[in-house]
User: Fold these one by one.
Assistant:
Number 1:
Amino acid sequence: MAWLQIMFQSQCLRREVPLNILIPADSEGAAPGLDGFRTLYLLHGYGGDQTSYLLECPIKQISEEFGIAVVLPAGENDFYLDREEDGARCGEYVGRELVEFTRTLLPCLSRRREDTLIGGFSMGAYGSLINGLRYARTFGHVIVNSTSLCGFFQESAREAEQNGVNRFHINKGFYELVFGPLEAVEESDRNPLTLVRNMQKRGEEFPDLFLSAGYNDELCFAMRDLVQELRACGVQVTYREYPGTHETSVCNHSLREGLIRLFGDPPKEKSMFWVDNEPVKL
Amino acid sequence: MALIQANFYSVLLKRTVMFNLVLPVEQCGGPLRLVILLHDYGESCGSFLSGGDIRSLAEAHGAAVLMPNDENHFYVDAVRRGDPFSRHIGKEVPDFCRSLFPLSSRREDTVIAGLRVGGYGALRIGMEYAASIGHIVAADPALVLEELPQKTAKRDRYGLTRRDYAAIFGRLESASGGRNDPLYHAARILEQQRPAPGILLAGGGDSCGAFAAKLAQMGIRPRREAGTVRSRQDFLLLLDRELARLGWKLPVSS
């Protein structure tokens, strides 16, 4: 396993940005497959950074088990969207620049669409759904766990307007900065369904979509609606629900199942310490 | 420009180790040239990042700069623990980097350079792995092997005592002329009629002069620069001039 902590100069964000990369290779190399390592661009949630999955998920094990490189960018709290106000192109950064940069830096990464995945939890789920659709020519698969959607943004902004800040300590100005005028957000390209309809008009191919949520997560109702609306549009979606709420353990399940669905069960290695034994009470 | 701090599992050392790599990703038209930069005793792979402008050096010469971690092993194969540090730094880390990053594997595209104990390491490793290293820059190198039997409990100019050296080299009387002597590897190169790396020896006083004279006697003629190399900044300026002299401002393809 190689863990790379990287700082690089982003054109989209006009500053130096941090990211982490896991490569399932050691000094004797690894078998990246004919076309290079499959690569998962994994986006963290609100309040997180490029270390979130390293600290909260067994992401090293997932990388090793599935033989997949994992790229962990920092998205700040920007919902991975291009921002009008200051020109910070947070969506283009993860959808285009980050992919180009990592492929230049690491020629061992596969360039193939079917080997290129984007996924995430919560805000990262939203970012991976939006940018997986916007950059569908790059990403073959999208693995989404519990994304917030337009209705939730509008409701949270209303709550912020009434009370100064909402229960997430966010003020209304933030929502307008990130999502534009909230009454227009449904029709805007901040709504994944708008992106889907536009793609259909242009006859573009969709990425493979794997959506999931914890059934004790209030966001799961909107996820269910989204799945049905996507299917009504004729888009194929795989959807799973797990016990649990808006939490990383659910995200783990989702990630693992999403990867097993695509690449099959990873090979299990027997521990060098394994012994057949029964427990005793002492 | 990318600054990379890497942790990876070294099969040779049987544990996870780290290195730093500065890589001018904007200049990645093809494989990049590589400078392996060796820190002094008591320092780490991070020392050059705070002690000089590595980014400008990398950008100016279109080269990646690799900073491995010696962990006070004096760039030799540790006798007691069996940790082969010279092989780790001379072969394992560069090969691993070449397998991941867009780096040239040609010897003429690879320079090893170091200051003080790192300067000795550059000579020791550069000579042993001359098949993949084309040029050595050694500034004020710690060429101490001949003086080892006279070392005492007092710290020498590199900050080491007789006990430190014994822990590193084992029997102090037999270090000179052995596998940790750059001249041993120089003799192998000549014996096997392989190309010797180019060498710049800067500063280093009498021991360095004597070393240069021995190399010259064998038929390998190092370039000498007199004067002292006082700081990491001095050393990086020297390295900058040497890379320019090697024509490294030009891309690999030309």
Note: The mean pLDDT of chain A is 94.
Number 2:
Amino acid sequence: MKKTLAAINRILSEELQTTVYTKSVESGLKLPASFLFLDSITVIPLLKNKRIKRLNMRIVYLEENPDTFRLLRVADFLGDKLRMLDLKDGRYRRTMLFENNIVEGVEGKKDLEILVSYDVVFDEELDAEKVEELTQKFLLKM
Amino acid sequence: MEIDQTELQKYIQALKRLNDGTLKREFASWTAEEGERIRAKVAKRTPTVSGQMKKSWRLSPLRSESRTFSVTIYNTARSEKTEKYPEGAPYPKFFERGHRIVNKSGQTVGYKDGYFILKKSAEEARRSMKRKSKKRIKELIKKELKH
């Protein structure tokens, strides 16, 4: 799961060249910025201790004065990168959901909101600590 | 070999009677009832500063479209009137989904994540309605079989 998040982080910071945040920022925001929120983790039981953990994530992309065309181009770029996520260790992870919305925010400024989710097969006993660590690190909304 | 179909026929007749309108009436009343319950839940979950948003949750009248019933929960709270928002800013929308924090000159200085009160409540409602409907339909069939 950490690798999935790290890969998304890399795409947002290196390839899209934005500052990545995982929590709300009250002041001093550097634009363009991306917010990566881990909304929830859905558990689907598999055999024995194995579980599928579905990571439901939300990415918010902000620019100072973006227009719809620019946001659509960013959405297209992220769509290409996130649909088949390169973990950089020879593995790829396919997204189970990719949805993008352009929403009108405060002062009529448009924001890009992307919903993505990935399935990770997980061993309940072996990886319990890792999940706990991850839920503490991110602002988990469950 | 003979098969006694009396019970099966009774069951079919009960389902037919239910399908005549009882089920539709029941679904309509369940939807309205559940809508009101969710509205109250959403209002309870809303954090308060002035309390305006908390008391502005509304429930639309029941809508029926062929075999679907629906209600909408919405918020009518608006901020003070400004030049950009002559009727007041629809801030519950920003509160729900997250919003930029802008300074007086209109520059973005931060971002506040949303509370997703409606989204969470809708997901809960979907789960609970599925569970409750199954139980209620079973009860209706049982009741109809006794007639």
Note: The mean pLDDT of chain B is 84.
